[in-house]
Amino acid sequence: MKRLICGVLAVLMLLTVCAGCGLKQKNDEPVDVEELRYNINDGNLVIEDGAQVIPAGHFKDFTEIVSVSIPDSIVEIGEGAFEGCSALVEVKLPKNITAIPVDLFADCTSLSSITIPETVTSIGDNSFKGCTKLATVVLHDNISTIGVRAFSGCSVLKNISLPSKLKTIGERAFYNCSYLEEVNIPETITSIPAYCFSGCSKLENVNIPNSVTEIGSSAFSNCKALENIVIPDSVLSIGSKVFASCIKLNDVKLPNKLTTLSAQSFFKCIALEEIIIPDSVKVIESGVFSGCKALVEIVVPDSVFVLNDKVFENCSNLVTVNISKNIETINDSSFSGCVSLEKISIPNPVTAIGKRAFSGCENLDTLFLPANVESVGEKAFFDCDNLTVVCESKELVDIVVDSGFEGTINNK
């Protein structure tokens, strides 16, 4: 009797396993899974009419699928339903879905075009991430949300028309879309998030509307073809590295209500020859203009009271700087590597000069230090071979000597 029961259980277990395998059957015969019936014939996936839902991850990594036809009876598609279908070229989406879910076509590396139905209002995170052959995307005006990394890595996407009702764009939404040439931000957008267009190396034209109040960190970093940008006065905040390594950027208009230039905002913008810092700016953070080799002259307005470290580091063509009279500290490496710098005046309120502040300024011939200076950092004037330091007080002479300066020092 026990043997009979064991035999029956074994058969039942075998049937259960086989049934489970049938969920992913890939042949010409229709497969029925919870009312979802489909067949795959020569790479063409056809889902039969009648079903309403495609479950999450259902066709994930089906690498033999080339095309997909989804009937209009489908009203919902689960997350990652077609993720990793690397041979998928063509998709017809149903007209009744309202959302493109998370990861829907992520890493579908052969997908060449997509038309989003007019019923859709949101495009989920990572939905087209890594679709490296996606050249054409048609978005309708009903879309209000584009998620995080939605089109990240779509490296052949040249043009995209953002919907007029779009309210939210996720971080890195168009990250490394290296063929994207032009972006017109709609007037419904208030924030351009971090890394949104970073790595769009062929991006030449960006239009930012007056509705935008915030631009996130690295939003346009490594946009190597971008030559000019107008940031409207509505913008109150610009994140760090926002235009870092935009190597052709030579014309920038900053907003007149900006209070902070965030760290490395223009790091290695090697074509930037001049820029006007508005009188609203109070703080210039670390390395803002570091590596801007074409920058010749700059005025730091009197509104600025904080000038952080490395702000003008390696600006090798910088000749003249007018510093705010309200600065109290010349921070570490502020002008290090400015080999062309000939003239700079240290404001009276300055009490400290940081380490390597002027190291390598080989063309700087005279520098007057006011009596308020109480400390001079190590190697502050290292490799300033032609420099004569003029100290307003006798005590300051000893401070400069202690910093390691071996050049000429005069006491006024």
How does this model look, in words?
By secondary structure, the chain is mostly beta strands. Among the domains are: 128 residues, Alpha-Beta Horseshoe (Leucine-rich repeat, LRR (right-handed beta-alpha superhelix)); 85 residues. Helices cover 7% and strands 21% of the residues. It contains two helices and 32 strands. The strands form eleven sheets. It has a five-stranded mixed sheet, with no helix packed on it. It has a four-stranded parallel sheet with strand order 8-10-12-13, with no helix packed on it. The termini are far apart. The N terminus is likely disordered.
Keywords:
Leucine-rich repeat, LRR (right-handed beta-alpha superhelix); 2 helices; five-stranded mixed β-sheet; mainly beta; four-stranded parallel β-sheet; elongated; 412 residues
Q: What layout of secondary structure does this protein have?
A:
Blueprint: H1 2-22, E1 31-33, E2 36-41, E3 44-47, E4 53-54, E5 67-69, E6 76-77, E7 90-92, E8 99-100, E9 113-115, E10 122-123, E11 136-138, E12 145-146, E13 168-169, E14 182-184, E15 191-192, E16 205-207, E17 214-215, E18 228-230, E19 237-238, E20 251-253, E21 260-261, E22 283-284, E23 297-299, E24 306-307, E25 320-322, E26 329-330, E27 343-344, E28 352-353, E29 366-369, E30 375-376, E31 388-391, H2 394-402, E32 408-411
What is the gist of this entry?
Helices cover 7% and strands 21% of the residues. The termini are far apart.
Number of helices in the DSSP assignment: 2
SS-derived structural category = mainly beta
Distance between the termini: 113 Å
What composes the largest sheet? 5 strands, mixed
As a whole number of angstroms, the C-alpha radius of gyration is: 30 Å
In the sheet with the most strands, the strands line up as: 1-2-3-5-7
DSSP helix fraction: under 10%
CATH superfamily of the domain at 187-192 and 201-322: Ribonuclease Inhibitor
